Amino acid sequence: MALLTLDYKSEVLSMSMTLKLLYPEKALYATEVEDIPVLYLLHGMSGDVDTWMRRTSIERYVKDTNLALVFLDTHDGWYSNTHSGYRYFDAFTQEVPELLANLFPKLSRKRSKTFVAGLSMGGYGALKLALLTNRFSYAASLSGALDFQDLEPLVDDFRGLTYWRGVFGDQIFAKNQPGDLVTWLDQADRKTKLFAWCGEQDFLFPANQRAQVLLEEAGFELTFTSSPGKHEWYYWDQQIQEVLKWLPIDYQEEERLS
User: Fold this and answer.
1) Domain-by-domain residue ranges, the chain?
2) Would you say 114 and 38 are in contact if contact means Cβ atoms under 8 Å apart?
């Protein structure tokens, strides 16, 4: 795999941004390789564009696939258009796909070959980006922060109320505020296939159980699993392998790691 770093000026965010692309090396040289499927990987709170590469063996897991990976950085902006004026949602659903298509024309622009996954805050982001657009056919959440009810008692430990209001506004913990999963469902496309996992000892496990019920009642095709585990990279490194098995990607069977 080739690891490419792209530093660019985001017109949407009005600031310099960095994304990283893990690109199949075969596609660098073989003219017949095209329409490469793409997985956007989203980090959690306090993470950045490098976190997935540093904390998991993701490069090894995809080395014998035809998949390209895109790593984004939301600066703890929850992949949202924040109340403080940073339009991360617009940047990642409009600007970044066009940027990648222009620079890397072999990357697929088809919804059927475009996927998104994330952990914790990134799990929230993965579902938000997928359900509020028609860009992603598969979306996966690992230990996703899918319900803010469980976060209110932890505000002081997670940056304080000023930070949360800067992202979501004054009604952050009000029921059915615009950042809630439940408020997206009326406009969400049921064609998107969903995957969610959460550890049973994770403080976000109750939120994931509530989200499971909500999504299934709303008619989404959801693969929901749980197992013993905490809010830790040890488990996310395991579960991203399950996400890759779930995605419709191709492997070079003769080279695939056992």
Assistant:
1) 2-246
2) yes
